[in-house]
Design brief:
The strands form two sheets. Strands 1-2-3 form a three-stranded mixed beta sheet, with helices on one face. Strands 4-5 form a two-stranded antiparallel sheet. Helix 1 links the parallel strand 2 and strand 3. The protein has a single domain, classed as GMP Synthetase, Chain A, domain 3 (2-Layer Sandwich). The chain is α+β, with helices and mostly antiparallel strands. 20% of the residues lie in helices and 32% in strands. It contains one helix and five strands, in the order ββαβββ. 5% of the residues are buried.
């Protein structure tokens, strides 16, 4: 399962966080991927609208798991 799902239709780019069991908490890898997605959209003449949403209950938090911790930062 992809943690970030994108769909480009015409001039609209949809970005969906796809971690509903983690309430869409962001990992470091997701931050990097999202930065890349936004940079691509900024350089794409055809992208006019970016919709950003999440699967399930959309609560974005940062989950610190890269350091082996399970703390959640709000």
């Amino acid at each position: 399962m992809d943690e970030i799902v994108t769909e480009h239709t015409g001039s609209i780019l949809r970005i969906q966080f796809n971690r509903p069991t983690k309430r869409n908490a962001m990992t470091s890898a997701m931050y990097l991927a999202l930065a890349g997605i936004f940079n691509e959209a900024a350089n794409d003449e055809n992208t006019r609208v970016v919709l950003w949403h999440g699967a399930g209950d959309f609560v974005v938090r940062r989950l610190v798991e890269d350091a082996g911790e399970s703390q959640i930062h709000r």
